[in-house]
Amino acid sequence: MASLHEGERDDESTSTSGGVEQRWGLMDSAPRPSPAQRPVATQWRQQRDKDVKALRHVCGTPCACAADARQALGTCERDVQATLPDTSTVRALSRSGTRGRPRPGAPPDQGLSQSDGALASSLTARHALIAPQRCGLLATHALDPAPLPPPAVVEGDKGQGHAARGCRCVQDPQGVASALSLPTPERLMALLMVMTGCVLVDAAGESRMRTALKAQDATCPDHKGPPVQHPTARWGFHACVGMHVLRVPGQWDALVVHLTEEHQARLRLLGKPYERLYR
Hints:
279 residues; alpha+beta; 4-stranded antiparallel sheet; two-stranded antiparallel ribbon; 8 strands; 46% helix; elongated
């Protein structure tokens, strides 16, 4: 695999999917050890417990002779997957053939053999499971790597996280779009245009609020804990709940009622035009 940057490697090949020729890149990201280890850790613990249980069963079962004990121990050691045999011995076990306590000085009439062993964790097998978890497949229909080299493909994939976070308001269960079922493509396109405008307004308000807080070295309350300087737009709009517009017949201007000091502080952060609208 060809090295890219910051411990990332890439191996590209061409493929055809859905009748479209594509350029596929297998990405190996070494800086992702923790996410790759989490799914392996659960599987590893389960397999390790099975190996230990199997060894305890073999060591707790007496055999007729030493050869049978070694064979049972060897079969168990070959079947283990998450561990390796560390130490293993076979010892003689004397036992009386009759039930109850033997008489003093009576020689044992049965000679048995019993296995003793210990297991150690196999780091090689563990790393072999972690390595595939670090890999991911990125595909693009830009077949020419000159204008879009592999590092640019990786950066474009990482940049999708910023766009996804900005569209969380569309995916919110409280959004009206989740409760609509549109029968025609034209209505669906119209709804997408409206929701795109809502995403732009949401992102612009969030950016303006965060910029003003940093410029004034101020903070605002947060629903999760102490005050922060990077509130989300949803929490900013939610903090304005309770403001009402009262329209009196015969008067041109509407009245804003229930405007608290917290609301006024939010409006001051957004700027003078917003203060004039709610005055």
